[in-house]
Every structure is written in C-alpha cells, then in structure tokens.
Amino acid sequence: MKRTILVLFAVLSLVAAACGNDTSTTAEQPDTTEAPDTTDAPDTTQAPTVDDDDDGPMRTIEATSVDGIVIDGDASDWDGVAGLDVTLEGITGESVEAHPATLKVAHDGENVLMLLQVEDDYDWNPDDAHLSAANAIQWAIEPDAAEHMGAEDDDREGSFGMVDIWHWELDCSAGRQSGGAVSDAGEGKDLGNDANCNFDDEWATNPTTREDDNGDTAENSLLGVWTHTASTIGEDGTWTFEMQRPMQTGDAQDAQFSVGSTARLAVAYWDADNGPDGWDDDEHVQSANQGWIEVVFS
Q1: What is the span of the domain harbouring residue 77?
Q2: Total domain count for the chain?
Q3: Who's near 122: CB < 8 A, 6+ residues apart?
C-alpha cells in the first residue's frame, strides 16, 4: 500500500502518517516505491543515537521496565508510569484546534509498550475513517532522520533518513485488538497492512510519501486497543490508544529498541470534527514542530 499525502508530522507541510484510504502517486518525489536493500542494512539491534538539535532542551521520556500492563484499552495499569504532557498543534497554515495529550512509554523486556491519551470528544464511524479519530506514532530509524517524516521542515523533499510509522485509523470498534499481531495481511499479502482494523506498519523518508512495510525482512507485530471515556458521539472525554510491539523485530524498516539505548519519536492525531466530511490529510495536530521526543530505555 502506497500513499502520498500533503504533509504529516509537524510542519510536515509526524507520523504523513496521514490517514484515509491509502493511495499515492510519487512521480515527483524521490523513488520510495521499493524497500531499501536490506542486505547491507545497518545493525538493527540498537536504537539510533542522534545529537540534540539547537532548539532547546529535548523533551524526554524514561521507558522503564514494568510488569502487569495489558494491551486492553484500560489505562489504569499505567498509573505508576511517569508520562509526558504535550500540546499537539496544527501544521503551519492549517487552522485546527490544538489538543492536550499525555504520552507514556515502557517495556517488559521483550516488548515496547506505549500509551497515548488525547483530550477530545468522541467521534467514531465504522463506515468512514474520516469521521473517526486517527493517530500515528513515528520513530527515527536512521540517525539523521528529521522529525518531519525524515526530512527537514524547510526542505521537505530532501530526505535525511528513514522513519518507522505506526499508523492507526480506527476501522475496528473500541476494545477490539488491532494490528498485524492479530490481523491478516492486506490485499496481495501486504505485510505492513492490517487488513481488518487498519493499524498499519509503515515507513517513510520524506513527508509526502509513506509505504507499507513490505521489504525482504518485513513483519508487522503491532498490537493496539483503543477506548474513549464517552459513549455518545460528540461527548467530551479522553481517547486512550494503547500499543505494543516487540523491541527487536529484525526488520530494517522498523525502529529497534534495547535497554540502555535511546530512541526518538513524534506523535500525530486527526480530529473528525475538522470539517463536515471529517478530517483531511493535512488537518491534524502533532508534536514534531516542537522537535523529537527522546525515549530512554532503562
């Protein structure tokens, strides 16, 4: 599944990880239709180490070892895990409402565990993804990858490295497990594509093109469950997106995590209230315009 979008993270003018039915054209973009040659791929056992930028102190999350977290959409088992409060803002030129969010990351020695909670009203439509909320998590794979899907904000066509994108449109209902860990691959055995619930494993090197993870080493072990504190459309409350993936996948198009390493991530969220037909690709809020978020695994 191949997708061209107007933008993604930050002034992606993350993680896009834009949503909607995934179609794309890349005639004017660098050729990303083929997965990179993985025979000479760098060592994927360690997360990339990148120098801090000059935009001030980097926001940091400590991903500690935990027991007892179950991916079920219930955030109560995260109460003892420290989180990072962020304000997700629209990309440049888009007038969309900012949303406060909380992000937590942990691990159990085998899996990286993630909790994203976003303050927004409840919108979910099983027949139209654009009338439902959506989110994306982006991780740096290559050391120089910039937070806007691998490119710099002021030069969005030039890639600085590959990023790993966990792209989630809510095709399945609250409380149901989503992702390649429990779902069939998409049409044509598209391994990165969660055919049932649309929680996809993707990668990108620039903010206008993203690809499903279908390289020689591809696998999709994403697992996610979402819930909302409200049950009536339009009622205020909190979204909970709970996610899990093995720390090590052996996949050159995945970020790899290990205790003692650091990783970098960015977050994006789409609000179905952005227009009468729901959200458009560029109508999202995100964290990337504030720089990467560093995750320290301990």
Answers
A1: 2-26+47-297
A2: 1
A3: 228, 230, 231, 232, 233, 234, 235, 236, 237
Gap between the Cα atoms of 187 and 170, Å rounded: 18
Residue 86 neighbours by CB under 8 Å, 6+ apart: 59, 100, 101, 102, 103, 267, 287, 290, 293
Return the percentage of the chain with pLDDT > 70, whole number.
76
Phi/psi for 38 (5° steps) reads -90, 0
- Domain assignment present for residue 38? The answer is no
Paired with 168 in beta bridges are 135, 199
The pLDDT of residue 189: 78
pTM, entire model: 0.80
Give the pair of three-digit tokens for residue 291: 């720089």
The bridge status of strand 238-246 relative to strand 262-270 is unpaired
Phi, psi of 243 (to 5 degrees): -135, 155
Does 33 map to a domain?
no
Q: Residue 177: which CATH number?
A: 2.60.40.1190
- Residue 34 forms part of a structural domain: no
* Closest to 79 measured CA to CA, from 60, 99, 102, 95: 102
pLDDT tier at 148 (50, 70, 90 boundaries)?
low
| φ/ψ of residue 19, rounded to 5 | -110, -175
In a domain, 37, yes or no: no
The answer to whether the beta carbons of residues 4 and 209 sit under 8 Å apart is yes
Backbone angles phi, psi at 123, to 5 degrees: -140, 120
Instruction: Quick: pLDDT tens for 187-207.
Output: 777 889 999 999 999 998 877
